[in-house]
Amino acid sequence: MNDARVTVRAATDGDADRLASLLTDEGYPAGGSDITARLARFAAHGSHVLVAEAGGEAVGFLAMLVLPRFESSETFARIVTLVVDAGERERGIGKLLMAAAEKTAAETGASFLEVTAGHHRPDARRLFESLGYDASVATYLRKRP
Length: 145
Prior knowledge:
By secondary structure, this protein is an alpha+beta fold. It has helices at residues 16-25, 32-44, 93-108, 122-130, and strands at residues 6-10, 48-54, 57-68, 75-84, 113-115.
């Protein structure tokens, strides 16, 4: 990152190859065309992908769904992906992306923001808990259809 200022902005199709590389580095192989399609899918559903950029390069990104609740007329937001370049971690980029997500969620009128962190990502869980996310409110269960 050098000493370049980090800014957060909406992702564009021009980010696709770099986001694919970041995602692949985390064990989720993707190509630029995959990311372009995912960006379009998120945009079509009113969801958001935010990019942290330093020195003209994406150094991290976050994908956030905005979803309707069924039991009330509210919406909520869920962060489904947060990736920071391995060489840029521990520099506040994750916190910056989370702050931008919280602001975006508030601007959409979401009643709350939630995030999941896999057991294999303890650093992510520590980040979310340090930002005030409560790990005791739900249990996440999964089964393939």
